[in-house]
Design goal:
Blueprint: E1 5-12, E2 17-20, E3 26-40, E4 45-59, H1 62-69, E5 75-88, E6 94-107, E7 121-122, E8 128-129
């Protein structure tokens, strides 16, 4: 089976919700909307186009970061695998919605600003190492990664 990877730019519709699966894994999920807009030359105004709604589910290392940075109304970019989730409501009505299993989620810097405050450490090979892993002397120098951007 082929997985479909995609990036979606949009706005968070609700406060992210944390929960645990039956196996004990912690997940966090939120709904987002992506709205297209186009400039109508005849009227000289921007016109709303089609809308895309989906649920974004985050696992493992992504849970903590999303829990700290993502909130209702924030502009986000979500990247992951997307699929149709089909289900039956309690009234017996069949429905379907889109669900993304996120691999990465971030703030859309085209619509806001952010200051990064996480501890990023680089290993001997120059790759980031997870916080809490044992460090060697070469790993001990933190990479001063701070990102600041102004709203467009």
């Amino acid at each position: 089976m082929h997985e479909t990877f995609t990036a979606v730019v949009g706005t968070v519709l609700n406060e992210p919700r944390r929960r645990r699966t039956a196996s004990g894994d912690e997940i966090i999920s939120f709904r987002m909307a992506s709205n297209s807009r186009r400039f109508d030359r005849e009227t000289g105004q921007w016109v709303d186009g089609a809308k895309l709604y989906l649920t974004v589910t985050c696992w493992k290392r992504l849970v903590a970061g999303v829990g700290a940075a993502i909130a209702k109304g924030r502009p986000v970019i979500a990247y992951g695998t997307i699929r149709t989730n089909e289900y039956t409501t309690s009234d017996g009505e069949k429905r379907a919605d889109l669900e993304m299993s996120a691999h990465a989620v971030g703030i859309d810097l085209a619509r806001g600003w952010v200051t990064y405050q996480g501890p990023i450490r680089l290993g001997d090979n120059g790759q980031p190492i997870e916080v809490g892993q044992p460090e060697t002397p070469a790993d001990a120098a933190a990479s001063p990664l701070e990102v600041a951007a102004t709203a467009a």
